[in-house]
Write a structure and sequence with these properties.
Structural class: mainly beta
Number of helices: 1
Shape: globular
Oligomer: single chain
Largest sheet: 6 strands, antiparallel
Radius of gyration: 22 Å
Strand content: 35-45%
Number of strands: 36
């Protein structure tokens, strides 16, 4: 179903990543060369860029329903915004106070803790969340699942707009498939297992596409995976303005081949994506791009070579940086077994073999994919588990059962020899968030 775009165009600016917003607001900047260096910059309001120490004794536990495979909720300054079965919440990560909460209209049956985004509508900071809800019905009425989207004032939780949509086809998605993808001048883009778009100012429905599971909104383009069983490994893009198709990659893979694993925005119009590669299917180059206005230039990029130790018939995960506007593959990081890649939200991309006690690590310049360095065994003989990366630093648990925390420089391939107190999974220079195994995150204040 396509709903025509709203004729009204209103000012909406995506809120900067929480870390960057806090840093800029306090006049704090990174190294002059923009290289993501580990030299610490101090801001008057307590923003550290990047932080090298957290107060492990001042952790604030927040039950956000966190689970593996789902990103942590957004943070802005000391405030953590998250979604749960009770609605949207703003939580002070320094003193543990709940600042406000806002509930959808019907009982919630599916939500991700990171299912909300921060944005600005007409210069007003807002939090927008998406929920799978169910009308319990009355009498003989059958309960009905629906998508609810709720926009509230970021400061006090007052409602800005609220929309309920009953999808016309298909069953209810899983909880991990319901979240707000992003917001820009044209649309608030939401995943309900498939793509929905709403007017940023009043929530009026704009368009929907049942064939795409959206993941990223980048520079006016919605990037996601093809929905359904025919070609789930195909990466595809739509216009945020009207939902018009823009390009597709890897569409020739069958349902038994490529499978989506990850997608996240990077600066410079790039999207970092990962998919399970076809078994023993490497070295032949990615399939032709379909429908790309650039003529499928992504097909000219070489495919990654086989991972070390890859066995015949074994699925591997391959990563790529893709231009959101054209669908061209900018580069493929060198694969390693059980690979994990994360952008440091400044200029560097770190990739490592996950789940090993001494991970192999590669660090690249995020815009070009140039390899800065690689290390076959990070930490040497010391057991090391990577937790997160941010602004030129890599945070890790070290020692038996992660008894200590450590920091490495992404620029210079060295252990800084510092004890951060806590190795966070994410940070913004004010707080460090660390995922627990019980559905909670703990917020630690940055102190140095």
């Amino acid at each position: 179903m396509q709903i025509g775009p709203s004729p009204r165009r209103r000012a909406l600016r995506p809120v900067l990543a929480a870390a960057a917003a806090a840093v800029l607001a306090s006049g704090c900047t990174g190294p002059a060369d923009g290289g993501g260096g580990a030299e610490q910059q101090r801001a008057e309001e307590g923003v550290f860029d990047p932080p090298t120490e957290f107060d492990a004794s001042a952790g604030v536990r927040i039950d956000v329903g966190a689970r593996e495979g789902v990103p942590l909720p957004p943070i802005d300054g000391e405030v953590v915004y998250y979604a749960d079965e009770d609605g949207l919440h703003a939580h002070d990560g320094l003193d543990g106070r709940e600042l406000w909460s806002a509930a959808p209209g019907q009982p919630v049956h599916g939500v991700r803790p990171d299912g909300a985004v921060l944005a600005e509508i007409d210069d007003r900071p807002v939090v927008i969340g998406a929920f799978l809800t169910r009308n319990p019905g009355a009498g003989d009425a059958v309960a009905q699942e629906r998508l609810e989207v709720l926009a509230v004032d970021a400061g006090d939780g007052d409602p800005v707009w609220h929309r309920e949509v009953i999808p016309s086809r298909g069953g209810a998605p899983g909880a991990d498939d319901v979240f707000v993808v992003g917001a820009d001048d044209d649309a608030v883009v939401v995943s309900y297992g498939t793509a929905f778009a709403f007017d940023p100012a009043d929530g009026d429905p704009l368009w929907s596409d049942p064939g795409v599971r959206p993941e990223v909104l980048q520079d006016g383009t919605v990037v996601g995976w093809e929905a359904g069983d025919d070609s789930p490994g195909a990466l595809t893009a739509l216009s945020a303005r009207d939902g018009a198709p823009e390009w597709s990659l890897w569409g020739e893979d069958s349902a038994e081949e490529g499978r989506p694993r990850y997608a996240a925005p990077m600066d410079g119009g790039l999207v970092l994506v990962a998919r399970e590669a076809p078994p023993s299917g490497r070295g032949e180059g990615p399939p032709e791009a379909e429908g790309s206005e650039s003529g499928g230039a992504g097909a000219e990029e070489p495919s990654p070579s086989a991972s070390p130790g890859e066995r015949a018939g074994e699925r591997t995960v391959e990563w790529a940086a893709v231009h959101a506007g054209t669908g061209e593959v900018a580069y493929w990081p060198d694969p390693v077994p059980d690979q994990m890649c994360r952008y440091d939200e400044q200029s560097l991309l770190a990739c490592w073999s996950d789940g090993t006690s001494t991970p192999a690590v590669q660090v690249y310049t995020a815009d070009t994919g140039g390899l800065l360095w690689s290390d076959e065994k990070l930490g040497g003989g010391v057991p090391t588990s990577i937790r997160g990366v941010w602004h030129g630093l890599l945070y890790a648990d070290r020692g038996l059962e992660g008894a200590a925390a450590g920091i490495y420089s992404l620029d210079f391939q060295n252990d800084l020899g510092l004890d951060p107190g806590v190795a966070p999974d994410s940070t913004n220079g004010v707080l460090g968030l660390r995922r627990g195994g019980d559905g909670a995150v703990t917020a630690y204040p940055a102190t140095g």
